[in-house]
Amino acid sequence: MDKLTGLATSVLTLTSGLAIVTSTSQTVLAQVVTLQPGTFSYQAADLLAETPINLEEFCKVYPLNSRCASTPAQPVTPQPPQPTQETTQTGPTTSGWAITPEISTLGVGATVTKSITPNLNAKLGVRGFGTSANITESGIDYDAKLNLFSVSTLVDYHPWKNSGFRLTGGLVFQDNNIEGTGKSNSNQKIQIGDQEYTSDQLGSVKAKVSFPNSVAPYLGIGWGNAVKPGNRWSFSANLGVMFTGSPKVNLAPQFGGAATPEIRNQIQADVEKERQQLENDLKWLNIYPVLSLGLSYQF
């Protein structure tokens, strides 16, 4: 009976030592309790060593504890939803280098384009073409050959970033010319100006028409941007002029065996008069029209 009474006394003493202040700003202490020998375990008493407990922090961890009934629950701050990253659809990665095979009044060739700024491109082009024709008229054989070759160094300016319209300027290194030969294939006479000569006096006449400005300025307009970011393929069109100067004509007579010095001098004079007349007839052609179409591919 005495043992039961002592045990009850120990429990009451322990409970009173754990009195907790209800204020959330105060600290709860576990009081050391002196137990009577033989009435309780000393190991349990060791667990009740004086240790400060912060009620506010304690209630955050154990909010359903009976001692936390008077402690207001901490509001839970809702976390905003994480934005979903949208995958942006972009075009293919391009290098700013493009090549444009094209056909033009300068021949067939290709142009390499390099982007300098969003509005400025540099271009290097090479073109060429050759053809020949043989015509016989009134017993005279005419052999003609067209030679086209040019190298262009141009700059494109796009005044509007999202438009294909462009202004183009630069230089064209050209060697465009026409060569021909006229000779009699029978006893027909060759007429130079108002004079006629037999094939024994004048075997043939060689002619060449070329442009004096081997380096010709170029101005023009066009459509299409070969190095537009994100574009692989594009259409190209150009319209412009080269300032080649009026054509120059060269005539060289080939004398026959029957041509005396007097006849040769007469032929030379007639040929020179004919040359001047041809140059005067071609004087209006001091600019060379350029029209080109092409398909560009950007690397």
Automatic annotation (TrEMBL):
Segments for region (Disordered): 70-98
Biased composition (Low complexity): 84-94
Protein name, as recorded: Outer membrane protein
Lineage: Bacteria, Bacillati, Cyanobacteriota, Cyanophyceae, Nostocales
